[in-house]
Amino acid sequence: MNIIVCIKQVPNTTDVKIDPVKNTLIREGVESIINPFDTYAIEEAVRLKERFTGKVTVVTMGPPQAENALKEAISLGCDEGILVSDRKFAGSDTWATSYTLACAIKKIGAFDIILCGKQASDGDTAQVGPGISTHLDVPQVTYVKKIEEIKDNLARVERMTEEGYDIVETPIPCLFTVVKEINTPRLPSLKGMMRAKSAKIIQWTAADINADPKNIGLDGSPTRVVKIFTPAPRKGGEILKGDTADVAKQVGTLLKDIII
Amino acid sequence: MDDSKIKIITEKCTGCTLCVRICPFGAIKVENKKAIIDLSKCNLCGACVDSCKFTAIVLDKGSVAKKDLSAYKDVWVFCEQKKGVIQTISFELLGEGKKLADKLGGKLCAVLLGENIESKVDEVAWRGADKVYLVDDARLKNYQDDSYTKVLVELVKEYKPEVILCGATVMGRSLISRVAITIDAGLTADCTGLDIDPKERLLLQTRPAFGGNIMATIITPNHRPQMSTVRHKVMKEPELDKSHKAEVIKKKYNDNILSSRTKIIDIVEEIEETINLSEADIIVSGGRGLGSPENFSQIKELAKVLGAAVGASRATVDAGWIPYSHQVGQTGKTVCPKLYIACGISGQIQHLIGMQSSKVILAINKDPDAPIFKVATYGIVGDIFEVIPALTKEFKKILKK
Predict the structure, then answer these.
(1) Which chain A residue has the Cα nearest residue B175?
(2) Closest CA to B391 of B287, B314, B303, B269
(3) How far is A6 from chain B (nearest CA, A)?
(4) What pLDDT was estimated at residue B333?
(5) Cis bond leading into A173, ω under 30°?
(6) Which of B122, B112, B119, B118 is nearest to B76 (CA)?
(7) How many Å apart are CA A164 and CA B334, to the nearest integer?
(8) Which residues of A touch B212 (CB under 8 A)?
(9) Nearest CA of chain B to the CA of A166: how many Å?
């Protein structure tokens, strides 16, 4: 089974701090990590490989330092890492990003399943996974929390919904975006880390993946950011004082209008 | 050859570092009193261009010839239905859509797909829809990515809306991303503010990024429709006007459009005694401070009195005290209820990301230095096992239960 995992390198949220004086984001020294949702996609891909044999190719679009994320994925059991990197990709929105990743996947060749995290923790759009499947014209199931079975070129999966879940059957090849509930990612093995260290990451530019210049980077992005600002941080309010009964009364008075 | 789209005009740069501070990507530094942009980090967002007082930064945003977009008019709301019930998010969007339609001088239109849903037309009309595009077919009974995408694409191609709003729900996010790619339109996720630039007829879409640490305003200058998703509870439901009538446009499509490659085998509902977290007006959440899974019963009782949903911190979900569907935070759900009661939750950044846009936050924790108090509207420093029962009693009294 040929499995492709799309990942993104993101800043580690716990490290993102706000400068209290200037009220701006402090990015210096912020560690980069694999998007938390993508770690479940990586784990699921490796599990599928263990179940059905095959190959896991992990691909990312990003700056040269995103190579580290691919190496980490290899240490977790992926076989091959591809970094799609070109200054021409700068300014890509989700349209251009999903187009670029779709071009890279076409170059990789035949696949059975593409796995993505349900969204990235820095952008939170959840648009790139469905975007890739649309560009490639393959069926998708989003918010997958369990891959029940795969046989005769059909996959049966559970899609998490607001009320519970749907059981969905889809032909293969297809794309899944996965949620946290699908698995518990393993830690890298010593062998994996050794492999990652010596692994050669494949590097592709816009030209390598035959991307149409009209469709990549800022030119390929229908949306434009016109303003970026830092919202006033939420201020801590009032600590209620008094014994428990007294505090409960105060809360009752303060929240009366909301709860009735 | 320097082909980068962003440039520093070194003659004008004074090395003042204003741009360094504004850059959300940490891509600018000042060396020898001149700003330098690290192009591998730069996302061409243009925040620095606006910040520079010396016009020393120029950004070529691509001067594509302006297309004629005048054929596109009206504001559409994709109305989500499950089991024939229109979801409240759609009503909230109709309320917001009406304001946008008025500013654009267009009509507010609802798109309704499903089986036997003609009876629902009044519900959207009463909430402001002037026109309803109705596609009633057994194959649209349940949401399917393929059929819903193809139908919506056909409707957009034929009737050319200027703006489409859709809920940032499981269904909405899956559907609208596919539509945007297919029709080559711009899409902005999870908008918290929408407005119109009347001169350029642009939808100004403001959304949080990096867990709300920064806000971005996004436009779609040269593509139509302009598409946004919005989360639950961000916009207000409009007042009901039962005299308001909508024109109904019924459409039929062939097998080609209505077919789906995926098949729904079963729809399983597993919400316990609780309400859907993202739709809840009040959420009572429990954290590690509860000490054991049994103590969630206290959270549940308080929630029951208030008619609230039960939330949970990641720690309690990972410990197996409560199912994942209750998790609030970065790897769980993002919520913004009218009232969020955090019990025994310390307030790690990953949790705060998921709930800090709640209108009122009440936090109860025994540690006075817990980070949750930094975002709480009201804080109670104390033992949750004393405070929760006292609150439950007090709320019962107020609600006469």
Answers:
(1) A130
(2) B303
(3) 17
(4) 87
(5) yes
(6) B112
(7) 17
(8) 231
(9) 4
pTM comes to: 0.88
Q: What is the pLDDT of residue B247?
A: 98
Tell me the pLDDT of chain B averaged across its residues.
91
| Closest CB to B399 among A93, A249, A259 | A259
Taking the CA atoms of B131, B137, B143 and B147 in sequence, report the sign of the dihedral they define: negative
Pairing mode, if any, of strands A32-34 and A140-151? Answer: unpaired
Q: Nearest CA of chain A to the CA of B103: how many Å?
A: 20
Q: Answer yes or no: do A238 and B377 touch at CB < 8 A.
A: yes
Does A147 score more than 50 pLDDT? Answer: yes
* Residues 288 through 327 of chain B touching chain A, CB cutoff 8 Å: 306, 324-325, 327
Look at B45 and A121 and tell me if their CB atoms are within 8 Å. Answer: no
pLDDT for res A153? 95
Domains defined along chain A, listed by start: 2-225 (3.40.50.620)
**Arch. (CATH architecture) of B75-256:** 3-Layer(aba) Sandwich (3.40)
Does residue B2 have a pLDDT over 80? no
Residues in chain B with CB shorter than 8 Å from the CB of A162 are 169-170, 276, 278-279
Enumerate the β-bridge partners of residue B216.
A228, B207
Helical residues (DSSP H) of B18-162, grouped into ranges: 18-22, 47-51, 88-104, 121-125, 145-159
Q: Which of B26, B46, B217 sits opposite A27 (nearest CB)?
A: B26
pLDDT in tens, B261-301: 999 999 998 766 556 788 889 999 999 999 999 999 999 99
pLDDT in tens, A222-253: 998 888 877 776 777 889 999 999 999 999 99
Nearest chain B residue (CA) to A256? B398
- Confidence (pLDDT) at A26: 60
pLDDT (0 to 100) of residue B1: 39
- Structure confidence by residue, pLDDT tens digits, A117-127: 999 988 889 99
Percentage of chain B beyond pLDDT 90 is 74
Mutate to test the interface with B, among A224, A250, A253, A257 (most CBs of B within 10 A): A224
Distance of alpha carbon B231 from alpha carbon B209, whole angstroms: 14
User: A248 and B26 in contact by Cβ < 8 A?
Assistant: no
Where are the domains positioned within chain B?
A: 6-59, 75-256, 277-398
- CA dihedral sign of residues A93, A14, A9, A38: negative
Token pair belonging to A194: 């050794």
Q: Does the beta carbon of B153 lie under 8 angstroms from any beta carbon of chain A?
A: no
- CATH superfamily, with its number, for domain B277-398: TPP-binding domain (3.40.50.1220)
ipTM above 0.95? no
Q: How far apart are CA B214 and CA B21, in angstroms?
A: 13
**A7 or B2, greater pLDDT:** A7
Min Cα–Cα distance to chain A from B245, Å: 31
For testing contact with chain B, the best of A28, A259, A260 (most B CBs within 10 A): A259
Evaluate if residue B152 carries a pLDDT over 70: yes
CATH topology of domain B6-59: Alpha-Beta Plaits (3.30.70)
Query: Is the preceding peptide bond at B225 cis, omega within 30 degrees of 0?
Result: yes
State the nearest Cα–Cα gap between B177 and chain A, in angstroms: 5
Q: Who among B261, B276, B399 is closest to A170 (CB)?
A: B261
